[in-house]
Model the fold of this input.
Amino acid sequence: MLMLLCQAALSPLWGDKPSFAEEPSLLQQYKDSGLSSSMYELSQYISDSSNHCEASLSKDWSLVQGGDSVAALHSVAPQKFSLPHVPVCFGAGGQLVQGCPNDPAEGQPALVEIHSLEVILHDSAEQEAMRAFPGPLIREDLHKVDVMTFCQRRAALSCDLASNRGRDSALLWKLLLLLCRQNGSMVGSDIAELLIQDCKNRERYKRQDPVANLISLTDEGWPVQGCGTTDLLTGEVVSSAGTPQQKVEKFTQLLFYGRKKEALDWATRNQLWGHALFLSSKMDLRTYSLVLSRFTSTLAFNDPLQTLFQLMSGRIPQASQCCGDRKWGDWRLHLAVILSNQVGDKELNSRAIINMGDTLAGKGFIEAAHCCYLMADVPFGHFGVKTDRMVLLGSSQSQQFSHFARTECIQRTEIFEYCQLLRHSQAFIPSFQVYKFMYASQLVDYGLTAQALHYCEGVGMALLAQNQNKYLVLMEQVIKVAHTRAPCRPSPPPVPSRSSQSILPLLSPSSLPLPFSPASLSSPSFPVFS
Done:
């Protein structure tokens, strides 16, 4: 219903001719004309909703090719309504108008019934999900406790430990809850604590056997543990095993004779890493690097300490490019150690986190990838630009648009925008405003007209705070919905809030910016369904 209205309103921009392969895409047309690429999402929403109507018309109607006579055309064309039917149409204010099949010629009074879509669809799961959401999330009109309660409830419903997607979905809701509690501020240590708590069973990383994996600093082979070795100076047989004190005494004895390489071999062989690292640091750089690499080689390849040491060495951790596999364990622990131990190079930190998100997204873990993108401050993009990493929280751009713009993903993104507004009053997400308008259109379809009008106010506030010339088409659609969907029956005037006072001039026809005119806001004819 509403999508047909939007299609009629946008027809001057799109034209009546079908698009062919040689014509530029809608996204390119909007870029060439100076309009925002957010209009591409709006066009996708309208085209998806109108496909069903076009398909149904193609089944019932067929054009006569090459017909010279109008009478022949009428003889071939079928009747529009072959059987008696009940006319039904959608009216303003979330109403469904039904004409009863009474014939006044037979003395039956003409009867028209008006039903409320909100009442008819009250038991539907979609309307229940919309009514449970405390939107629109306007900073001045809503307490953040309501948003935190909603996030906590959604995290509990999404927490399915049997699947990775359920855990990732619950983690994303918990992350939004934490951001709302902290007024949009992201602290690495707090996020890391959340990631560690989410790991039900912490991974145990088995250390590697240094005897089996290390290469000697000298040319001599490694002795077998438990067997003795002959001291070349004294001729005594010294056991390689012993108490820590005996190992340190042997290390000291080798240094008494100036045998630094043998002392390093002994220290690394018996895991006296403190002695070995300190001694090698006072020698040449090559020896120190070799001892350091030996120490890290004793750790499991998927140990988060490996991730930390690689990051502190100025390299992108290997876990950022290989996480998501079972052999690499839980990616949350690797992200936690990166967030809690930020190195001086902020670009390196950001690249490591973004690479981890790209790896997870490539393996289908979209919600996990978006958790990484949020930590790296990746900006939100547009659906038509496939190189943009994030458009709606928890939704992949590889899907069809009808599946991409799901209600849950729009609600998540609106909560994140609300958290940013708690920190800064003008921190709107420009590319997200078109999705809030689509959400308002869905509210109208399910009879929640009052809530939809509040969303129009919120979108109008965001447009007023930005460059309005980039969103002229979206602004026109918001104004049309606000006028055509207003309740028809008079009601007591509500007390205007601070947010509504700021948007009332926008919804006034006398103050519309050019090229709009009051004539363009006339209510179009509503579609009739049989």
The chain has a mean pLDDT of 76. The radius of gyration is 34 Å. The longest helix spans residues 38-60.
